[in-house]
Fold each of these.
Amino acid sequence: DYNSRLTASILPFEKHSDSLKLYVVGRRGCSALKKQSSAAVTEFPAPASVVGLPMQLLDIAELVVADYAGDRISRLFVNSARFQGAGRFDVESTQLLPIPYQQTIAGDRLPIPETLYQSRPHLLEVAVREYLYITLYELLLDALASEHGMRLISAESARKWIEETQESVHRQLSAVRRENSTQEVLDIVASSRQTRRR
């Protein structure tokens, strides 16, 4: 359900865009998208824990900023799972690029002071990269919590099934033991009767 809902949220973008490029975090989501979409897919391994997020994000942010600066992408939307509690999540789409403030900054309505060390375009690029990194970190953290919540529900269901199966097997074994004990007693009684008759 987790990967299928995320995949379904991305497919409408393909209908409205001639050249869609997808950056996908996680193998399962990537294979699901490749089956249903003809868009170019760049795959990143999914971090298994929060510890793996920072390094993963550096790679993603660098690639996205390079593609955006090189005009290979004009907009960036992130479709991700928003954690709503264990086993529940909502799929949300967030536009990250172009940044709403970027046009204002580029148009000098919100001036960036000139420094001796860096140019305005460089400062803008750094600001975009930082904004992208922070927002992606938050979104991936939420998605990680959502995925682990779904796994928790699955594990809980599996545990209940194992407990019910164990109890059922235990009852069956008890019934078989009782039947065997009864049969042994009947066999002993029958053999003792035959012995008396002789």
Amino acid sequence: MTNTSSAVALSQPLYGATFRQAVRRFFSKYGTFSGRASLSEFWWVALFTFLLSVVIVGVVYAVVYTTGVPREDGSIEYSYAGVAVSLVALLIALALVIPNIALTVRRLHDANFSGWFYLLSLLPSVGNIIILILTLMPSRAEGARFDK
């Protein structure tokens, strides 16, 4: 079950994907909920989105706190630049919501779980832990039933 060729169709999971391949496929399959995603595709994208969020938060923090004007009461009067950068960060985060959900659903499919299991993430406290455990499960050949 190991195919590392970049010639693998987008409808199929790419086992052993590199960081670059996983991120490209992530954006190529932006809103695709059908099909499957390998462990490597899923976790490389998780690393990418984590690093992206660290950079974005760092930029927002730097701009907001270097361009803001401190008030006498200790709060900060935000500049237009701080507000603009914060809005851009929010738009980036919102733009990544759908593809991240789609990738998680495809990962669940590869482990032979229904994509509807993603709704378990709505359970307070334990939902995201359950999804984490399910995405850690190995790929199963039976997951091919979710391919088109």
Amino acid sequence: RRPLSFRPLAVAHVAAFNPNLVESELFGHVKGAFTGADKPRDGLLKLADGGTVFLDELADIPLPVQAKLLRVLERQEVQPVGAGETQAVDVRIVSATHADLSNAVREGNFRHDLFFRLNVYPIHLPPLRDRVDDIPLLAEYFLRKFGRPNPSGVLPADTLNFLKARPWPGNVRE
């Protein structure tokens, strides 16, 4: 097999999808499956076949679509919207959410069986405000990537103090 770095990666920010089209985005559709489906289209799970799909904001997946996602994990197959047959896929799913999925399961907003299948290697990452020691590293990284070169290689102390004092409600994206 090819190393992971050479395999497909598909990224889906589920909260950004139109709720009526989440299923089509993930599983694809056949021509004529719904108004506007003028040609067949592979979904992200098929496009990442042999690789990885990253589902951001997993808790926003509607319950009926969660059942189809569970099918992908259990049977390694997808069924495009409007299709009568399934297609085999070999895909790893990595996910993230800001929601408390254990609580969502208790409230009936997230399938217990899907939670069990996806919660194999949980990683809890505290919000940026709780790990201010990461701020200088992140600031230098983003400055190198998007800013002008910093000849001294170090941000001024007053800048770092300002950044560390912020509440960071938007976390690293902010």
